[in-house]
Structures are given as C-alpha cells and as structure tokens.
Design brief:
Chain B: Pfam families: CbiA. Chain B: Belongs to the ParA family. MinD subfamily. Chain B: InterPro entries: CobQ/CobB/MinD/ParA_Nub-bd_dom (IPR002586), MinD (IPR010223), MinD_FleN (IPR025501), P-loop_NTPase (IPR027417), ParA/MinD_ATPase (IPR050625). Chain B: Interacts with MinC and FtsZ. The complex is a heterodimer of chains A (about 240) and B (about 270). Chain A has about 240 residues and is α/β, with parallel strands linked by helices. Helices cover about 15% and strands about 30% of the residues of chain A. In chain A, strands 6-8-10-12-15-16 form a 6-stranded mixed β-sheet, with no helix packed on it. The longest helix of chain A is centred in the N-terminal third of the chain and has 14 residues, at about 25-40. By secondary structure, chain B is of the alpha/beta class. Chain B has 13 helices and 8 strands. Chain B has helices spanning about 15-30, 45-50, 60-65, 70-75, 100-110, 125-135, 145-160, 165-170, 185-190, 195-200, 215-220, 235-245, 260-265; strands spanning about 5-10, 35-40, 75, 85, 115-120, 140-145, 175-180, 205-210. In chain B, a hairpin with a 6-residue loop joins strand 3 (about 75) and strand 4. Chain B is globular and about 55 Å long. Classes of the chains: A alpha/beta (about 240), B alpha/beta (about 270). Chains A and B meet through loops of A and helix 7 of B.
Chain lengths: ~240, ~270
C-alpha cells in the first residue's frame, strides 16, 4: 500500500466540447438547449469545455460571467474555456473559468456541440467508415477481426467466440461470445445486439463481464456505449 | 464420387463410434456399398462395436504407409452385405495420418465403387479429428444434451467451416445435428438441456434424436451395431436417422416422456 493519501496525476479525460460559432448569448443558449433536449440523459450534469477558436476577435464581445450562468442553468457543469484571445483571459479567470491550453482542432472522439443557428453543421470526420458483414454464425473458437471499421453479424455468436472491430459491432442474433468494439481507441464505437448474452463487452479498452451486468438485461436487445470512462448498457426497446 | 460423411463431436464419449457403426450399417442395409473408417489411431474402438476385432490383420495406417493394399485391410462385415470396416492402428499415433495419405485412401475407395465412406472421428480438435473431417461432404455432429458437449460441437462446426477441403475450395460441408443419449424424463425434470435449447445454440438442422437406452451398451458389448436391434428405441431412432439422411421425411420420435406408452401400443 502506498502511504499517500492523495495523488495528483496528469490524465486524459473525455470531455464534451462546446464550439461556439457566435458570441450572441441567445444563439448559444438556444443551441445548447436544443442539443441537451435531444439527449437529456446523456448530457445531464455533464462537464463541458467551451472552445472559442471560431470566434476570433468577437470573443471580446462574450460576457464570461453570463456564459457561465447560461451553461449552468442548462444543466451542464462548465469547467473550462480555451482558444480565447489574450484580452479575454483576465475576464474569464475573474468569472471562474479555468483557461485551458488550446486543444487539437478536431480530435477524433470528442462529442461536438455546435450552436445550430450560425455556421453550417460540421461533422467530425469518421475515421473508420468501412463495414464488414458476416452472414454465418460465429462459432465457439472463431474470431472475426476487423480493425478497419464496423462489423455486422447477421446470425448469432457463440460462447467462446470473439469479435474485434475498430468501429461499432452489430449482432442480429444472440450475442454470446466476447465482443470488443473500438479496438483502435474509438470511444464513439458502440455495440448493438438482438439478445445480450455476451461473456464480455468492451469499447476502446473499457470492458465489463456479463456477470456484473444487471440480469434483467440478459437476453434482451441492448446497446453498449461508452460514457466518459463508464461503459453503459441499456435495453434498446 | 463416393459421398464422404464424418461423424464428429469434439467431446469424447458422446456416441460417435456407436453412431458411425449404426449409420454405416443402416446405409449398407439399404443396399449402398459403404465403408466405415476408424480415425482414432492409437485408441481403436470401432472394430469392437462392429464385432470384427478378431479379424484385423492390416489397418488404416498400413494402407497410408503402403504396407498393405486397401482391399487387404478392408474387413467385410459379418452382419450386413455391402459394408466394410477399415480399422485404425492401435500401435501408432495420429501423426501417421497425412492429408495426402487419407486423400489417396478416399480416392481408392471411390475407385472400388463405394457409395458412402463414413469417417469415425476421434474426440478433440487435433490431427485425428482434423484428418477425419478434411475430405468430408457431410458432417454428422453428435451432441449430448449437456452444455459442455454443445459447446464442443459448436467449436467443431467452426472448424468444419474453416479447416476442411471443401471450406478451402470456398464450398461448405453439409452439417447435420444428431442428439444422442436424450432422456425426455430428465429434460422434463430440468436435468438436461432440451432439444430446442440445443438447436437455438447450434443453429444446425436436426437429423435425429437418439434416446438414452440400455440397448446401446448391450449392442456395444455384443459387437452388433444397435441399429440391428429392431425392437429397441435407440435402434429404431438410428434407423429413422439413416432414412432422413437419405432424403426421406420421417417424423421425430422418442421426444416425449411417455415413450413406454408408445411401446405398449406397438408391442403390448
């Protein structure tokens, strides 16, 4: 056992990033509210980083205190701001923002929230867009490995089989073996199946054994996805 | 070409050899010239079940090694015409089996005019089992109603799709599921997997269900394949299975608990 009571370590954490294309507070409020209402469970109390790289000099028009209040009121937890002009830094710190170093422009697995009104909606470039379809049952001891994209299994998979995909995995039968999606680190990969009886599910290295999973989910159509560091499993219908 | 049928399971003790003997005998009884080959080199059993253990002179490995001709090694069955047994070697191991050697024997059996070649696979997924399934056109996958047997059968089905000659040619081996040692009473009591559960897991067409029966052990000990016992439920179930294999539509029997009542109706 280590004797330290606390520990501070640099770690990468997945965060939602709000990219602003307008400094108009009403536009921001409406846009964020719309996004939140479309997926309320997903975004409730979720930490948010604001990115101002598209604002340029109009950043100065942004009231940092009001921005913080607007975001809080919508149920997010504002934790930091980045890519603001030097003149705004002081105001941001005053308003309680953590000023973050500029991040990479479009890292692959960030959930992007953009104001709807201004600027055309920009989608993150999908890294893995090819699909492989398997039309036979996947038997015990068999493995399908497809790092280039998503896998679709039209039949069942057996206990002792293994599915490995760079992207998402869809199983249109019973899922009984192990299934690993996002093996290249794609945290947006998901697993879908008609009948969840898997031994192990994993996305981007985060795994769970079915033993741990709520038993009433077993045998029902389910979806598995990654929410932050946590693997979530929910019925689909 | 002769039609090559492998009887396989992965797991041991589920009834592969009993099934191979009954199946080959059933085919021969219907007039098809049939050879049954024991691939369990080193653990020879088929000759006992067929009752020809005292007539083994040359064996499968001798033929592969060109130490004897195929016709010297084939043993004519004493119960049924048209049936020949190619016994395994008891003193060798499975490394003696090679794809080339087995392929040559298959070609020769075809030249000798055999309609069916039944390959009795050893347990496991190693060389012996691999060689037994390699040239197969059809596979009879023998499964007992319990989880480990079902999983092993599933594994074998995967190998049939990837490790056989047909699979390598981009074709597929026809798969048939045969459930053996099925006890409807124990299924009803929840002690055994039900037929539906097995079918759900394996998703392979069912070709027969052989009930658990005393007559199987008696038949093995007396060296007469159980299919020759026309009175026993297992013998009749094997006969149904052979007819289904040959394309007849035969309803499944012996799936209900009151099988005794059925016998009373027939023979009582």
């Amino acid at each position: 056992m280590s004797g330290e009571l606390i520990e501070i370590k640099g770690e990468m954490t997945l965060l939602s990033v709000l990219r602003l294309a307008s400094a108009d507070m009403e536009v921001i409020r409406e846009g964020v509210q719309h996004k939140r209402d479309s997926m309320p469970q997903l975004f409730a109390n979720s930490p948010l980083v604001v990115d101002c790289s598209q604002l340029g000099d109009t950043c100065a028009a942004l009231d940092m205190t009001v921005l913080r209040e607007v975001i809080l009121a919508l149920g997010f937890i504002p934790i930091g701001i980045r890519n603001i002009t030097d003149t705004c830094v002081e105001q941001a710190i005053q308003a309680g923002w953590a000023v973050l170093r500029a991040g990479r422009a479009t890292g692959a697995p960030t959930r992007i929230i953009e104001p709807l009104v201004e600027g055309e909606s920009k989608q993150a470039e999908p890294l893995l867009n090819s699909v492989k379809v398997v039309d036979r049952p996947l038997r015990s001891g068999q493995q399908v490995y497809f790092p280039e994209g998503s896998l679709v299994i039209l039949q069942h998979t057996s206990a002792g089989s293994e599915i490995l995909a760079g992207g998402s995995v869809h199983v249109y039968g019973s899922l009984r073996g192990r299934v690993l999606a996002g093996i290249g680190g794609d945290t947006s990969a998901r697993i879908f199946c008609q009948k969840l009886e898997a031994e192990l599910v994993a996305i981007a290295g985060h795994y769970r054994l079915l033993d741990d999973i709520d038993t009433d989910l077993k045998g029902s159509p389910a979806m598995v996805w990654l929410e932050g560091e946590k693997l979530r499993i929910a019925p689909m219908f | 070409m002769s039609r090559i049928v492998v009887v396989t399971s992965g797991k041991g003790g589920v009834g592969k050899t009993t099934t191979s003997a009954a199946f080959a005998t059933g085919l021969a009884m219907r007039g098809y010239k049939t050879a049954v080959i024991d691939f369990d080199v080193g653990l020879r059993n088929l000759d006992l079940i067929m009752g020809c253990e005292r007539r083994v002179v040359y064996d499968f490995v001798n033929v592969i090694n060109n130490e004897a001709s195929l016709s010297q090694a084939l043993i004519r069955d004493k119960h049924v015409e048209n049936l020949h047994v190619l016994p395994a070697s008891q003193t060798r191991d499975k490394d003696a089996l090679t794809p080339e050697g087995v392929g040559r024997v298959m070609d020769e059996l075809h030249e000798l005019g055999f309609d069916f070649v039944v390959c009795d696979s050893p347990a496991g997924i190693e060389r012996g089992a691999h060689m037994a399934m390699y040239y197969a056109d059809d596979a009879i996958v023998v499964t007992n109603p319990e989880v480990s047997s079902v999983r092993d059968s599933d594994r074998i089905l995967g190998l049939l799709q990837s490790k056989t000659y047909r699979a390598k040619q981009g074709e597929s081996v026809r798969e048939h599921l045969l459930i053996t040692r099925y006890s409807p009473a124990r299924v009803a009591a929840g002690e055994m997997l039900g037929m539906e559960d097995i079918l759900e897991i394996l998703a392979v067409p069912l070709i027969g269900v052989i009930p658990e029966s005393q007559s199987v052990l008696q038949a093995s000990n007396s060296g007469a394949p159980v299919i020759l016992d026309k009175v026993s439920d297992a013998g009749q179930a094997y006969d149904d299975f052979v007819r289904r294999f040959l394309g007849e539509t035969v309803p499944h029997r012996f799936l209900e608990v009151e099988k005794k009542g059925f016998f009373k109706k027939l023979f009582g």
